[in-house]
Amino acid sequence: MSKDNETPQEFICPITLEIMKDPVLMPDGQSYERSAIAEELNRNSVSPITKQPMSIDDAKDNVDLKQQIEKYLNKSDDSNDSQDPSKLDVEVSPINNISLAEFKARYTEDPDNHRNYLLHVSVKPEAIENRAPLHLIAMIDVSGSMDCNACQNVADFENIILTRLQLVQHSLKTIIACLSDHDMITLISFSDDAAIVLPSTLTDAAGKVLANQKVEELVTCGCTNIWSALDKGVDQAREHIGEGFNTSLLLFTDGEPNRNPPMGIVPCLREKLSGGVVNFTINSFAFGYAIESELMEEIAEVGNGVFGYCPDCTMVGTIFINFIANMIATVSPLSVLRVKNAVYDVKHKIYIYNGTTTNLMVPLKNVDDLNITLDILTTNQYFVCNDIGPIANSNEHVLFKDQQYRSKLIQLINTHKFGRNCEQAINDIKQLFNELESLTDRSEFLENIMTDLINPSDSCGQIEKSFQKDYYSKWGKYYLRSLLRFHIVEQCGNFKDKSLQLYGGELFHQTRKVANKIFMAIPAPKPIEIPAYGGRGHSRQRGGMPINMARFNDRNAGCFNGDALVSMKNGKEKKVDHLKKGDVLSNGGKVVCVVKTLNQNESKIAKAVKIGNALFTPYHPIKVDGNWIFPIDYAKPELYAVDFWYNLILEGAGSATIGGIEAVTLGHEKKDGVCNHPYFGTNQVLKALMKYDGYNKGEIEINNKLTAKRDPDTNLIIEYY
Q1: The U-box domain covers which part of the protein (predicted)?
Q2: Do 614 and 686 form a contact (C-beta atoms < 8 A)?
Q3: What is the DSSP string of 508-548?
Q4: Sequence-ordered list of residues with C-beta below 8 angstroms from that of 401, at least 6 positions apart, any chain
Q5: What Cα–Cα distance (Å) separates residue 405 from each residue in 7, 340, 436, 596, 658?
């Protein structure tokens, strides 16, 4: 179980950063999770905190602490957030009948074209006490490229190699853990061809064990034959027609297919779907930067599913946590809303969700003699809308405005997703933003759309950023198509895009919280160790410190803070941000230049380890008891307000005493353990900084976000630009 903001600190293992289940007291005075400290001492026979010699034989059961933790967890069990999703107070049984609490249509003149109308149709089911059992058919790419490092070029993950397949395996284990005894899973692997790894299996206790075993046994080889996987997946779905399952196919892949049918994948898929009953959806999930974005989007569109994009390891958790929560909250993924009159007749595929409204915005030439019907395919029910009319009150006006601009956002992304004219796309984004800004009665939903459209913060304004030079081709074209599908089906697909966060009802949000905890609590995959800044060795070996999976939902970066005190040659101390060119430190090193880097987080909050009066970023090497270590191995990082991070270029020394502790400086040339680094530890970084304005004066200020170039084999930064 993971730590939350209210968990007592003494309940948290300093290695796993999770609540302990079997705490043991060690000679260094610290309690640890037994399995975690045993694994750590098996590699290094010293305390990970004080570095004093220790053995697992020294461990003593901390009975009092264990009882306190159990009491705390039992008390916490009263809240839904701490429950196993399979034990949530929701019955799992087929949904044979759906009653509608709302099925209405409202229209008004199109403000952009007064000769036309805009029609808003809304559908909301009555409260449903049960949820449909799920049948998830996972089609997993095990081609050779799935062995690529998912942590490549990701800040704070330099010393970790986790393959794409490993993160898919962890995500699948999370999904399996969220399923009930009445749900079902099928596993299909594909490379040169597709193979059924696990036939359709109920996820009771025995089924989950078997499914996790089959997931763990997946290995990489061969090429990428996506069509073979889709072909087998559709066949598996059709074997269970009429059994009451909410069935969904999940395609996991990281590349372009290189074994295609003559007709092409999408035409073959359309033909296969037209040749029988379609009682399922198809979703695509893509990893990295070498995927065929149009294909992934088209597969999701044809299959009425979503396209989840995981550019790197930090997004894998947020995508699949939200996906399983959406699946559990879906009443029917297969419904057809038909809007018809003399000049318009179109069928629209929609989802129906538990506890929330599904919306459709339609432009019409006129609203005479409208006939609006709803066909729910999963229950064979048919409804006629009898509540059609103009907007009648202020509440309807607010809802209408939300859907009007959701429709505009969808149209904007759909128009420009091919990247033919990124400059025009940015102009249109600014126009939509300005239009929203001019509204005097903006809802929270519209405010969130504005945040995603344009915002200087790194984590916001992604739509405008995705069309910027160099971004569109790298990640923008994937991001835009993924965001588009989520808005079309009204699903919250991640924790990050503000405009998605208001989708989903109570059951969705309740399940999402629990799935998030499961993701972080499931034993993490074993990383391959590589030299970090600096690292724990030069060989790639599986193992190492257990990973806190919360890291795969976020990222931070940085050196030491400006208020930290530096020991000077005259015996006094001086703040880092007061240092000048020519100052001489206690070790004789002379200041050549102070490098000052802006904290790019808009909130100016960053993770750091506090030692004395100094803040160090988690992976900036420091010397403790004669050994160079990472600050994160000395103490647990906390959140602090930091405007700028600092580092030093010294003449005659490669370190400085900061906050009473020795820390490396730029171009230090140290080769010991964690210090070893091919860029920051060599004159390569000095050569790069000499090009900056201010170097000769002794102060460089870096305000723009830099891009890291990394060694493809070691994942270490070898250049900043």
Answers
A1: 6-79
A2: no
A3: HHHHHHHHHHHHHHSPPPPPEE--TTT-S-SS-EE--SPP-
A4: 439, 441, 443, 446
A5: 41, 23, 8, 42, 53
- Which residue, chain included where needed, has tokens 């029988």? 276
Contacts of 163 (CB under 8 A, 6+ apart): 146, 147, 148, 149, 150, 220
Q: Are strands 387-390 and 100-110 parallel, antiparallel or unpaired?
A: parallel
User: What is the rounded CA–CA span in Å between residue 545 and residue 693?
Assistant: 41
pLDDT for 237: 95
Give Dmax (Cα) for the chain: 91
| Tokens, residue 605 | 């909050």
Contact 54, 28 (CB under 8 A): yes
Q: Going along 142-183, which residue ranges are E strands?
A: 160-161
- Among positive and negative, which fits the CA dihedral 90, 92, 98, 104? positive
Cα(549)–Cα(317) distance, rounded to whole angstroms? 8
Size (the chain), residues: 721
pLDDT number for residue 551? 43
How do the residues of the chain divide into helix, strand and coil, expressed in percent and rounded to 5?
30, 30, 40
Which tokens go with 582? 């020519």
Residue with tokens 């009555």: 126
Q: What is the pLDDT of residue 76?
A: 55
d(CA 188, CA 52): 49
CA distance 301 to 698: 56
Can you read off the two tokens belonging to residue 715? 């994942």
Q: What would the pLDDT profile of 275-334 be if each residue is shown by its tens digit?
A: 888 889 999 999 877 788 899 999 999 999 999 988 766 666 788 889 999 999 999 999
Pairwise CA distance, residues 406 & 361, whole Å: 9
pLDDT in tens, 61-118: 888 888 888 877 776 544 444 445 555 667 898 999 999 999 999 999 998 888 899 9
Q: In what side-by-side order are the strands of the sheet with 160-161?
A: 160-161, 528-529, 541-542
* Strands lying side by side in the sheet with 358-364: 358-364, 113-125, 100-110, 387-390
C-alpha of 64 from chain center? 37
Domains of the chain: 9-78 (3.30.40.10), 91-128+333-391 (2.60.40), 392-500 (no CATH), 556-720 (2.170.16.10)
**CA-to-CA distance for 628 and 721, rounded, in angstroms?**
28
| Local structure of 427: helix, strand or coil | helix
Cα–Cα distance, 200 to 249 (Å, whole number): 12
DSSP state of 90: -
Query: Hey, how many other C-beta atoms are within 10 angstroms of the C-beta on 444?
Result: 11
Q: Are strands 638-641 and 644-651 parallel, antiparallel or unpaired?
A: unpaired
How many Cβ atoms are within 10 Å of 10's Cβ, its own excluded?
Answer: 13
Backbone angles phi, psi at 565, to 5 degrees: -95, 130
Look-up of token digits 């198809």: 282
Neighbours of 415 (CB within 10 A): 13
Q: Report CA 81 to chain centroid distance, whole Å.
A: 20
